[in-house]
Amino acid sequence: QVRLVESAGGLVQAGGSLRLSCVASGSAFRTMGWHRRAPGKERELVADSAWGGSTNYADSVKGRFTISRDNTKNTVYLQMNSLKPEDTAVYYCNARTYTNVNYWGQGTQVTVSS
User: Fold this and answer.
1) 52: pLDDT confidence band, cut at 50, 70 and 90?
2) Is the dihedral angle over the CA atoms 13, 43, 95, 49 positive or is it negative?
């Protein structure tokens, strides 16, 4: 059974930093990453990381967020720096298997105050 366990988000002031983590179990995952859904908006990709190390970022977070992955622990991290109020959203861990099955975490709230 596949399970994704996310760390808690939190409330942070604009300009601050926060790190999210997600531990996956139950399968091998080709890609792991993070999506987010802001109030009134659709869920969007934030960043993802492939097994081989390639990464992909949304334009809105490039230069501020860093995704990293520990394959030995099946864990993906999202270091978020220089946070902005528009980063406020529910953040979801995502993991995709080698057969292209997607799994999602339960979501964690990140709130950035101005």
Assistant:
1) confident
2) negative
